[in-house]
Amino acid sequence: MFFIYISLSSHSFNYFLHIACAGLPRKLDHALHNHSIFLDPFPPPNDSDFNLLQCSACSRTSSGFKYKCCEKDCKIHWFKIDVTCCLVPEYSTQKFHEHPIFIAPYNYDHEIYPCNGCKRRLTKTRLQCTLCEFSICYECATIPEELHYKHDEHPLTLCYGEDTDGKYWCEECEKQVNPSEWFYTCNKCCITIHRTCLFGFYVYLKPGHTLKYNRATTVEVLGNSSSTRPICSRCEERCRGFTYFKVDLKTLCSWCVFAPPKR
C-alpha cells in the first residue's frame, strides 16, 4: 500500500493519506442517492453523537473521510457514506459470485433481502446480482480477500462459505464457526477465524475520540494495542479487536459497549 506523507509544521502531528484518499473528488453522484454528495474530510468533534457516525450504506461507525448530502429537504435524513463503501463500483464482477453484481437502488420500501455473506436481513442497501437472486451487504463486499494475522506467518484468505458437515472452531474466541457463513482461514496451518473476531465491530472508529451516545452517555474510544489487553467490565474477558471503550469509568470491549446490561 502506498502512502502520501504530509508534515504540517504548524501543528504537533503528522498527517498520513493513501494516494486514493488524497485524490478523492470533492463532489460526486452516487447510485444510492438522488442528490450530489460532498466530501467531508474532517474528523468528528468531541461530544459528537455516536449514532450520527454510521455509514448509510454499511451501517458501520466511521470517523474517517465520508461523503454526505447537504440538501436540507433530503428524504434520507443525514445520508452519509464512508469512503470504503463509496469506492465500490456501480457494476463489477467479484470472486464471491459467478455473475456480475450492481448497486441496487436505495430500498425505500424496506423489502427484506438476505445477505449471502453474513446471512443478515437487508432492508435498505445492498449489491444485487444481475441474473439471479444473490444479494450481499456493503460490509461483506468491502472486507479484504486476504490479510495478515499477527499469530500466523501465512496470510489468511476469505472463505465464502462451505457446504459441509464438518465442525470448525475459531482460533481467537474458541467458539464454533458456522461454515455456511464467510470466515477467514489458513489452509497451511488449518486454522479458522470469525470475521468479527479479526475486525471487531468498530474497525473504522479511530482511537482518541470522545463521543456521546443517546446524547447523554460519554464514550471514550481507546486503542487496544498494548501487550496486555484490558479486561471488559461486563463480559469479564480480555478486550478483543482494535479498540475498546471507557463508559462511565467502566472498561468495555466492542462486543459489550452498547449491549444491554446483565441482570
Number of helices, where a helix is a run of at least 4 consecutive DSSP H or I residues: 4
Strand content: 25-35%
Which word captures the global form? Answer: globular
Tally of DSSP β-strands: 23
Q: Structural class of the helices, strands and pairings?
A: mainly beta
Taking all Cα atoms into account, the compactness measure Rg is 20 Å
Overall average residue pLDDT = 84
- Largest sheet properties: 5 strands, mixed
Textual characterization of the structure:
Keywords: Repeat. This protein is globular. It has 263 residues and is mainly β. It has helices spanning 19-22, 83-86, 138-141, 195-199; strands at residues 3-7, 14-18, 27-28, 37-40, 48-49, 66-69, 80-82, 91-92, 101-103, 113-114, 121-122, 127-129, 135-136, 146-148, 155-159, 168-169, 176-177, 183-186, 191-193, 210-213, 217-223, 243-247, 250-253. 6% of the residues lie in helices and 30% in strands. The protein folds into 4 domains: 3-86, no CATH class; 91-141, no CATH class; 146-199, Wheat Germ Agglutinin (Isolectin 2), domain 1 (2-Layer Sandwich), CATH 3.30.60; 210-253, no CATH class. The protein has 4 helices and 23 strands. The strands form 7 sheets. Strands 5-20-21-22-23 form a 5-stranded mixed sheet, with no helix packed on it. A 4-stranded antiparallel sheet has the order 3-4-6-7.
